[in-house]
Amino acid sequence: MPLNTKTWPAEGSRVEQVRIPVASDRDILRARQRGRELASEANFTTLESTSIATTVSELARNILQYAGRGEIMLRSIQQENRTGIMVVARDDGPGISDLKRALKDGVSTSGGLGLGLPGVRRMMDEFEIVSRQNLGTTVIVKKWARRCTTAGPGSTSNASFEKRDGLPEGRFGAAPPATGRVVG
Description:
The protein is built from five helices and seven strands. 30% of the residues lie in helices and 31% in strands. The relative contact order is 0.17. It is globular, with a radius of gyration of 15 Å. Strand 5 and strand 6 form a beta hairpin. A seven-stranded antiparallel beta sheet has the order 1-2-3-4-6-5-7, with helices on one face. It is of the alpha+beta class.
């Protein structure tokens, strides 16, 4: 299945957006590889590229495991004097009933180690998750290239990522209204 690649204008720079449907293990590998390629194209370090690829893989695996299908959106971003990559993982699955619990190390509903979402949160610079029972989950994370960033890890705005970054509504629509929302 071909990747859906679009270019969106953003303040005088070219912004690439790639949408990858996730419905199989093959899609997880495709999303991971595209995340690594995008990071390399944006001149991220090897360590940063690995963090991005690992994050994409983990989020795609969660989509497949808990919702059965969804999508990963990768987008190179520019903000002032820094370059980054935004990853959006969306599904229409059952949602996460207890977000605070799901973000604790060692908590797993699948019998795993429970390091997935907490690990993603640690590897990325910005993290937001919105989940509603029976309406799905949206995870939005950003990684800024260290060579040109002035913000520290974990800095997150409370503004909606979709609104602030002008994300178009995709197949899964905008993030559902927050009944369960964690930012930071």
